[in-house]
Amino acid sequence: MKRFLLSVLASLVCLHVAADKADDRYMTYINTYSAMAVDQQEEFGIPASITLAQGLLESAAGRSTLASQGNNHFGIKCHKDWKGDTMLRDDDAPDECFRVYSSAAESFRDHSIFLTRSRYRSLFDHDVTDYASWARGLSACGYATDPNYASRLIAIIERYALYTYDSSASRHTEEMTEFILSQLRKTHPVRRVRGLHYVIAAPGDTYSSLAKEFHIKKKRLMEINDASSDHVREWQEVYLEEKLDQGPADTPWATIGEDETLHSVAQRFGMKLDALRALNPKAKDRPGQRLRLR
How confident is the model at residue 95, as a pLDDT? Predict the structure, then answer.
């Protein structure tokens, strides 16, 4: 019964969310791994929505090198207790050690075990259906250095209605259908960090589409975000007002990660690109480059 309901959920979400081809690979990932995420929720008490959102974000819907070559869907680093195979990738520093798994299933299970560490114990004080508190808790516990990590997870969960996977599997199919159709979100919630208002771009978004949604001139929106083309990176911040000249007070340094650029780092920390370049006049625009933010 549970598998049937999961199949129905995936089909419904696909029909109503994946109208744009840019969403197809995300829906494929959700269809492939949703049952696995629900299994982890039942065994460990971690919301399936959180597991799926982290997997989608950390693995770029299964396309990252870590996921495609190492079955590592959650960006989990080696740490001292890891005895298995490893892979070196640029992250918070160049050539960091990441775990390599024999299968995606092993990665999903290890992610659940990883979150049972004492560092993340406070997460389990939140209800399994409170995905927003879990997302903010992961960020507060230091799962990722990205200051907007929680916002990204929440944006993914709400766009693809992943919170439906946190609901009881015994709910009647017709009731679940009505719930999904009534709750599905199409707009971009405005968020705020360091006094700046921003939204998280979903697959298929452009500066043109976002400018139209928020009644801002496209040229102005592109200027604010130091954009040279209409394209927007998936799950990147798009600011609705002028960015700042420095990074956060508690984050003086950052590293260009895999598939990142100077521009994406500037967006991640709400900094003007020219200001970031001025602080790092000799920096190379490539992964592994360490950058001053202040």
Answer: 79
Instruction: Indicate the pTM of the whole model.
Output: 0.83
Q: Where are the alpha helices (DSSP H) in 20-90?
A: 24-44, 48-59, 65-70
Angle between helices 24-44 and 104-114 (to 10 degrees): 50
How many beta carbons lie within 10 A of that of residue 124, not counting itself?
15
Q: Where are the domains of the chain?
A: 2-64+113-183, 191-292
Collapsing DSSP to helix, strand or coil, 65 comes out as: helix
Strands (E), 180-261: 191-193, 196-200, 237-239, 253-255
Mean pLDDT for back-to-back runs of 10 residues, the chain (294 residues): 55 48 81 93 95 96 94 93 89 85 97 96 95 96 91 93 75 50 69 94 93 96 97 95 95 89 96 98 92 96
- Would you identify the CATH topology of the domain 2-64+113-183? Lysozyme (1.10.530)
Is the C-alpha dihedral spanning 93, 63, 187, 30 positive or negative? negative
DSSP assignment of 89-153, as one string? E-SSSTTEEEE--SSHHHHHHHHHHHTTSGGGGGGGGS-TT-HHHHHHHHHHTTS-S-TTHHHHH
Name the class of domain 191-292.
Answer: alpha beta
Q: Tokens 């090198």 map to which residue? A: 65
Q: What is the pLDDT of residue 19?
A: 42
How far is it, in rounded angstroms, from Cα 244 to Cα 98? 33
